[in-house]
Amino acid sequence: MKRYKFLSAALVAMTLVTTQLPVYAQTADGTTASTASAKRAKHVKAKEHKETAEAMQLRELKESLKVQQEQIDALRAQVAAKSSDVTTAQQTAADAQTQAAAAAASAAQAQAAAAATSTQVDAVSSSVTDLKTTTAGLADTVVTGQKKIEDEINEPAKLHYKGVTITPVAFMAFEGVWRDRSVNSGLNTPFNSIPFPGSNQGHVSELNFSGRQSRLGGLFEGNARSYKLSGYFEADFLSGGTTSNSNQSNSYTLRQRQIWGKAETASGFAVTGGQMWSLVTETGKGTDARTEKLPATIDPQYMVGFSWTRQPGIRLQQRFGDYKTGAFTLAVSAENAQITSFTASSGTSGAVPSNYYFAGTGTNGGLYNNTTTYANNVAPDFFVKGAFDMPRVHAELGGIARFMRDYYYPILTTTISSTVSYTYSPTSVVSNTATAGGAYGSIRVSPSPFFDVAVQAMGGTGVGRYGSSQLADATLKPSGALEPIRNYHGLFSLETHPAPKLDVFAYYGGEYAQRTVYTVHPTTGTGSALIGYGTPNLVDTGCYVLPANPGSSTGGSPSNPANCLSPTRYIQEGMIGFTYRVVNSPKYGKLQYSATYQLVQRNLWSGIGNATTPTGPRAQDSMIHVSMRYYIP
Question: For residues 313 and 481, what is the distance between their CA atoms, to the nearest angstrom?
Fold first, then answer.
């Protein structure tokens, strides 16, 4: 502003000066304005000689003022322009200050934003790092998941049908057996038919190959909300049809081993129904089906002393606790009954009455085998078992109740002389039900991953059917009523795992049937006779006598020879063996080789004529089983 005031004052001063001083404004040709005026005045004087000197001076003064006025107007215009520029500059300065303040505010905001951005950048950088890590992990997961999906498609461990998963179960086997004394049997050993020296088969060995134990099966599983559903079946070819033989095609029939269904809740309650291993069979986890602990034998009849059957039934069980930390399972079952190996004999002719019946031959129309007898059951066999599981121990204890029914015609008279004869009521029949049963249990300990030790036992009346030797369940009273026989079974197991691919095992088992004898008293005459199981008056003189020429190329029967009549008292067996897995792959399956050596000894009750064996006749048989199996994965 001071500048502009100075310019205004200068302008006024110049005005005053111009009114007093001659004008020296420069013209366009470079001369001053005063010089130009003088020239014009001389020119005028030249033209107008009549002008006076005062007139000329006045004119020159006017012209000089005019020039000065033009100069003043130009200066004023410049001052006005300068004033406008100053106003514009002031406004511009004000605007600049406003913009500067705004810029400062923006700078502050930018600085704050930059700080926030820096924090965000750090966060983003950290997030990016985490994202990279996550992405890398995700990539690995995707690759793994993709491989798993491809494996599920190309190499599924299970098949899927709707909501059900299906796991195939199968192995293919080549197996063989050599026996020192023939029992005319395949892989399966009828322990209660070990031949005596008095039998032709007691002097000849046998060698048989077989693929019949090859197995087919499957496990079906589905989750139906509150229930886990499962079904299982397995079958092999250890069945002989009426046309089966080993002549050329070796065509043996498929047989049912197991086929059952199961429903289980999350609380541990389960119902299982169908054909399965009996509840008497030792299990490895609670009382669950498919966890049975079987001897590691090749022989399909397993081991003497091993308690088992496979039969139709229904099982209810409840588990308390967890298998990993400790669990108790309680189970009950009702299973199909059968009376097996019934034996009633006497050393006196005719002493065994013929007034009873408890079974009949099967009929084809009823889809039973017409060469086998079936008991007329009054009730199923009932089982109860409690199993206790710890990480290295499994123990179980149970009981069985059986009901053996027969019908008989009452005996009216009994006459004894050299023989026994009876007369029976022709008009009445008596129904008799004998109660039988017993207890069973086992304990299995795994102190280290390298071996397991187990003991199992069973004892009671009428439980011979549940032992591998199939000793007699029952005999006969003099009235014709069934009487259960007391039986005991026991098995010791030692199973070692010295290497991941190798198992070495040893077993010892025995089964006993108690002598059960009754005296027959006559209604007329004198004397007495014995009847029952293992009567001491049975003739055993032929147990060790070499038989005469049989007169036939077929040799004879492996059962007791003539005059070797006492039934079995005790059967015992020792076994050693190994299994070596050449390949054991979850992808390709398992290829294993096995071999076992067994020594079986069969002891009879003592009878007449066995002075050389005071404890009863004895027979034994050595046998070797071999196996090669391929299990599908």
Answer: 27
Task: Indicate the burial class of 292 (C-beta count within 10 angstroms; 0-12, 13-18, 19 or more).
Answer: middle
Q: Are 335 and 312 in contact (CB under 8 A)?
A: yes
CA atoms within 13 A on the CB side of 423: 5
- Residues 43 and 41: their CA atoms lie apart, in Å, by 5
Beta bridge partners of residue 434, listed in sequence order = 404
The secondary element (H helix, E strand) that includes residue 589 is: strand 589-604
Angle between helices 2-20 and 53-154 (to 10 degrees): 160
Among candidate residues 414, 531, 443, the one with its CA nearest the CA of residue 483? 531
In DSSP notation, 291-320 reads -B---S-SSTT--TT-B--EEEEEEEEEEE
Answer for the pair 619, 202: CB distance below 8 angstroms, yes or no: yes
- Give residue limits of the domains in the chain: 2-122, 156-234+247-631
Neighbours of 596 (CB within 10 A): 23
Counting every residue written for the chain, the total comes to 633
Position of tokens 């004008």? 23
Q: What is the pLDDT of residues 46-82, one digit of tens each?
A: 444 445 666 777 877 788 788 878 877 877 777 666 6
- Under 8 Å between Cβ of 187 and 175: yes
Radius of gyration of the chain from Cα atoms? 59
Backbone angles phi, psi at 611, to 5 degrees: -65, -25
Q: Which alpha helices (H) appear in 160-230, and where do they start and end?
A: none
Burial per residue of 338-355, b for 16 or more beta-carbon CB atoms within 10 angstroms, e otherwise: bbbbbbbbbbbebbbbeb
Cβ 213 vs Cβ 187: under 8 Å:
yes
CB atoms within 10 A of CB 491: 26
Q: Are 598 and 573 in contact (CB under 8 A)?
A: yes
DSSP per-residue letters across 561-589: -TT--PPEEEEEEEEEEEEEEEEEETTTE
- Measured between alpha carbons, how far is 339 from 309 in angstroms, rounded to an integer? 13
CA-to-CA distance for 77 and 160, rounded, in angstroms?
103
The residue behind tokens 């995700």 is 138
| CATH no., domain 156-234+247-631 | 2.40.160.10
Amino acid code (one letter) for 604: L
pLDDT digits (tens, 9 = 90+) for 39-53: 555 554 544 444 566
Higher pLDDT pick, 573 / 135: 573
Residues 415-450: b if buried by 16+ CB within 10 A, e if exposed? ebeeebbbebeeeeeeebebebbbebbbbbebeeee
* Residue 506 token pair: 């040893």
Cα end-to-end distance, the chain, whole Å: 105
Phi, psi of 616 (to 5 degrees): 115, 155
**Dihedrals phi, psi of 452, to nearest 5 degrees:** -130, 140
**Which residues are 206's β-sheet partners?**
179
Return the structure tokens found at 348. 């006196």
Q: CA triplet 304, 306, 309: central angle to 5 degrees?
A: 115
Residue 448 has pLDDT above 70, yes or no: yes
Give the ranges where 414-554 is alpha helix by DSSP (H).
none
- The answer, yes or no, to whether residue 222 has pLDDT greater than 60, is yes
Determine contact, residues 514/580, Cβ cutoff 8 Å: no
